[in-house]
Amino acid sequence: MCEANAYLIEENKENSLIMEAVDRVIPEEEGIRLVSIFGDQKFLKGYIHSLSLVDHKIFIKTERE
After folding, report:
1. 52 within 8 A of 19, measured Cβ to Cβ
2. How sure is the predictor about 49, in pLDDT bands with cuts at 50, 70 and 90?
């Protein structure tokens, strides 16, 4: 499987799981939309902090420093 899990970054630490089995990350004007392999969607006012492709992880921050 190639899907990833999305995590919220707070205080420069991996904090909480936002969504499992993310298939698509779609940039939008005010943030990003996550879509899972099951069709679930979440919109976050934030940005991608980093990706770990080998570990299948997406790290998201909600505020710019």
Report:
1. no
2. very high
Q: How is the chain split into domains, by residue range?
A: 4-61
Residue 65 has pLDDT above 80, yes or no: no
Supply the pTM of this predicted model: 0.86
Could you tell me where the DSSP H helices lie in 8-48?
none
Contact 37, 31 (CB under 8 A): no
Q: What is the pLDDT of residue 15?
A: 80
Pairing of strands 47-52, 41-44: unpaired
Give the CA angle between residues 33, 34, 38 to the nearest 5°. Answer: 135
